[in-house]
C-alpha cells in the first residue's frame, strides 16, 4: 500500500521533506501540496510526478485523495492544521513546534484525548539520531550511574536579522529541551536564563549567545548553550555526566584529513546536513505507523511539554528570574511507549 501524503507549507523544510518522501522513503508518495504562497506550491508540485495543488490547508486535509498530512508551515499556523487533521481522523506529522502557546497545545491535547487515539507526531528529529539514541541506551543501561547533568550546545552559523532572543529559545532551544526530556526521562521543573557577553557578530537586538539552566523534576540539571552566529558551521554537542561515567555525542565525521601540519574534518553547514539521517528515519517511522493507522514517536504531549518550557524560558529571559514550570496531568493516552 502507498500512503498518499499532503504537505502543508513548502518552504525550506517542507521541500526537504518532500524530497525524502519522494526519493528516499518507502511506501509513500506526495499526493498534494499547499502553501499560502500558491506560486511556490505550484512550482514545487510541478517537479513532482503527480501532486495536486490545493488552495489552502483545510481543503487539502479534507480531500479524499490525502491519507495523511505533513505540516511544515510556520509555527503559528500549526494549531489550526493539527486540529483539522484530528477532526478528520487523519495522521499528522507536525514540524516543531506543536503550537506556539500553551493554550493552543492544550486544545490539541483535548482534541486527541476526545478522539481517543494519538494522531499527531511532532518533528523532534533528534530522537531518531543514532548518537542521541545510543546515549539514551547507555544511560538506561546504568553504565554511567544515575545521570546528574546534561550539557547541550546548539550552534548555528548565522541567522537572519528577523530572529529575536525569544525566538532563539522557542525555535532553537526547543530541540535541546526535548532532548533533555528524552535523555534524562524527566520533565523540566524550572528555567533560568544567563546572558553572557554578546557576540560582536550578532544583531544589536540579539542576546547571542544565551544559556538556559533547566532544573529537571528528578534534581538533575541541564545547561543549554544557544549560539546563532558562531560562523564556523552548524555544531551540535551533548554530554551527560553520570555518577561514575559520562556519555557524549562524538564528532560526526567519517574521515579525518591530515595535511599542512594539521588534521580535521567537516562541520555540517546546517540542520539539513547534520540530521539528514535522523529526518529520514523519523519520517519513515511516521509513514510506517500512519500506513497501519497508528501514530508513533514524539507525541502531542511531548510537543506540549516543550512549548510550556519554552514559554517559561521566554519569561525567564525577560525577567531575569527563575521561572517554575507547571504541566497539567499527563492523560493516559500519552503514557510512555513500552
Ligand atoms: P520557511 O519560512 O522556509 O517555510 C515556511 C512555509 O510556510 C513558507 O513557504 C510559507 O509561505 C508557508 N506558510 C506560511 N503561512 C502559511 C499558512 N497559513 N498555510 C500554509 N503555508 C504557510 O520555514 P521553514 O524553515 O521551512 O520552517 C517551517 C517549520 O518547520 C517551522 O515550524 C520550523 O520551526 C520547522 N523547522 C524544523 C526544523 C527541524 O530541525 N526539525 C528545521 C527547520 C524548520
Ligand atoms: C530551525 O528551525 C531548526 O529547527 C533547527 O533544527 C535548529 O537548529 C535551528 O536553530 C532552527 O532555526
Q: Shape, please?
A: globular
State the CATH superfamily name of the largest domain.
Dihydrodipicolinate Reductase, domain 2
CATH class descriptor name of the largest domain: Alpha Beta
Strand content: 15-25%
Weakly predicted, low-confidence segments: none
**What is the CATH architecture term of the largest domain?**
2-Layer Sandwich
Bound molecules: nicotinamide-adenine-dinucleotide, (2R,3S,4s,5R,6S)-2,3,4,5,6-pentahydroxycyclohexanone
The residue fraction in helices comes out at 25-40%
Biggest sheet details: 7 strands, mixed
Walk across the major sheet and give the strand order: 12-11-7-10-9-8-15
Judged by helices, strands and strand pairing, the structural class is: alpha/beta
Q: What is the CA-CA span between the terminal residues?
A: 27 Å
Domain module tally:
2
> What order do the SSEs take from the amino end to the carboxyl end, as H and E?
EHEHEHEHEHEHEHEEEEEEEHHHE
How many E strands? 15
Cα-based radius of gyration, to the nearest Å: 20 Å
> The CATH topology of the largest domain, please?
Dihydrodipicolinate Reductase, domain 2
Mean pLDDT: 97
| Total of DSSP H or I helical runs spanning 4+ residues | 10
